[in-house]
Design brief:
The protein has 4 helices and 5 strands. With about 130 residues, it is α/β, with parallel strands linked by helices. The chain has a 5-stranded mixed sheet. Helix 4 links the parallel strand 4 and strand 5. Helix 3 packs parallel to helix 4. Bound molecules: ligand LAUPNLSC and zinc ion. Its EC number is 3.5.4.12. It catalyses: dCMP + H2O + H(+) = dUMP + NH4(+).
Length: about 130
């Protein structure tokens, strides 16, 4: 988790810096990520604010989530039965990536958006397939 928090410090998101770290069963680190703009999309040119009435100007249209980056940055092709440490409980889109990658466990530090339908949907999927989270 400390590594996930260290990665989060690299995020340019002024509101929520999120980090993720994937480890195997021997606790070897396989992938690290943080929430950031896609490669080549300048942190200075793309929006870091929320704009719910115009998604074109909303950061959520652009930001790659920490979990996605950790999975894409992995240095091992097989993440089956691995664990992901995350600063923030994964959203539904990250939950899908986590499940499809074969990860079996999510350890999170904050569940500050637990009231949001996307987080409830993530838990619903984890519960359905037996991904543990704590
Ligand atoms: O599963 C997730 C969910 C969100 N994030 C990132 C995306 C954004 O940069 C922030 C959330 O911003 P708020 O202003 O707090 O809504 O967190 C992520 O990396 N992984
Ligand atoms: Zn997400």
């Amino acid at each position: 988790m400390a590594t996930a928090f260290l990665a989060a410090m690299r995020s340019k998101d002024p509101r929520s810096q999120v980090g993720a770290c994937i480890v195997n069963r021997e606790n070897k680190i396989l992938g690290i990520g943080y929430n950031g703009m896609p490669l080549g999309c300048s942190d200075d040119e793309f929006p870091w604010g929320k704009c719910r009435d115009n998604e074109y100007n909303d950061k959520l249209s652009y930001v790659c989530h920490a979990e996605m980056n950790a999975i894409l940055n992995k240095n091992n092709t097989d993440l089956t039965n691995c664990t992901i440490y995350v600063a923030l409980f994964p959203c539904n889109e990250c939950a899908k990536l986590i499940i499809q990658s074969g990860l079996r466990e999510v350890v999170y530090a904050s569940d500050k958006y637990s009231y949001k339908p996307k987080i409830c949907a993530a838990k619903r999927m984890f519960d359905a397939v037996g991904v543990k989270y704590w």
